[in-house]
Design a protein that fits this description.
This protein is an alpha+beta fold. About 30% of the residues lie in helices and about 25% in strands. The protein has one domain: Gcn5-related N-acetyltransferase (GNAT) (Aminopeptidase), CATH 3.40.630.30.
Length: about 170
Amino acid sequence: MSSLAPASPGDTPDLTGFLSEVDLTLSGLDAPTVYIWIERDAAGTIVASTGFELSDDRQHALIRSVAVHPLAQRTGEGTRLALFALAKAAESGAQRAWLFSRRSGPFWQKLGFATADRDDLARALASTHQVRLFAESGQLNREIAWSRPLRADLPAPIRDGPIALH
């Protein structure tokens, strides 16, 4: 069984620190419309996170906060986390997944994502924290958008045990 657990408001400070270290967006982490799961190691340190935000019509999901501790990168953990978020978004009724990524395009392409029009993403997910932040700060114009359809039958990967840090 996966050791991912829904993040609670009490997790926000640790989650903020973790996502800052891996250079991911911090906007809206404590908002009830942002769905985030975390994994902690035996010492209680966050070593992984994944999540999404839904559009107002719940047809579109913005995948976000997919990160693993640097020592667990290139072990398949990122794929597990991404597939988990995609499955949860599909379970929530979303028909299409979107994300921003300037650095990890090849990773997302392996999961079926293709480059997308960032203005289409911004329209579909205009109310999400990340899109609002990027639009207000001017960062939206520097982002690369990715998208793929979702299926309700997308399996959520399950793995026994905690992430092994090497």
